[in-house]
Specification:
elongated; single chain
């Protein structure tokens, strides 16, 4: 019994003398939650940021109805001159919407019109606004398709064969618990 006690005391003293081992054993468990919290806060902030939404547009006079759609969604439209690719690449602007000059003509002929959204896909900070712009254009397209069908005497409901509806049965507690799935890995990392 005395031998076990002596070895235990010796090992504890040696362990306390090794400052590097102590720091790695105690600092990681203390600062990792702060780091993870900061990282999660940054990601949430980037995905929910609702700052002043300025939308640079080339040819906004060609598509007044689409521009109204953007304004109703909270965008401030700004005429853009120059090279949109260079401006996006240089991070002068987040994205540029380019409306073609023949927009009105193709719309009048019930043809497909392409509105170009110029952005840098490698930038994480612009994904939210790019997604919002694309969704607005997609919604405008759906409304336009419905109006075109009505103009031809066809019900727009014919275009909707199946619509998916989601019903999430998870409680807030379950969703919060899902965030805690990283704890076992964290404990293993702290142990070694």
């Amino acid at each position: 019994m005395n031998v076990v006690r002596a070895v235990l005391i010796k090992e504890l003293k040696d362990g306390l003398r090794d400052r590097r081992a102590l720091l790695s054993a105690f600092l990681f468990p203390l600062f990792a939650p702060v780091f993870i919290y900061g990282l999660m806060t940054l990601v949430i902030k980037q995905n929910t940021e609702s700052e002043d939404l300025v939308l640079p547009v080339i040819g906004q006079d060609y598509a007044p109805a689409l521009m109204r759609q953007f304004e109703e969604a909270g965008f401030t439209l700004e005429a853009f001159d120059g090279s949109p690719e260079a401006a996006v690449r240089d991070k002068t602007v987040e994205l540029v919407v380019q409306v073609p000059e023949d927009y009105q003509e193709t719309m009048a002929n019930f043809e497909l019109t392409r509105v170009l959204v110029i952005h840098d896909g490698s930038r994480n900070d612009t994904r939210t606004i790019v997604r919002k712009v694309r969704n607005l254009i997609s919604n405008y397209n759906n409304e336009l398709a419905a109006l075109r069908l009505i103009a031809r005497g066809v019900s727009p409901k014919i275009m909707q064969g199946v619509r998916a509806k989601s019903s999430d049965v998870a409680s807030d507690e379950q969703r919060a618990a899902n965030l805690l799935n990283f704890i076992p890995i964290y404990v293993l990392m702290a142990a070694f």
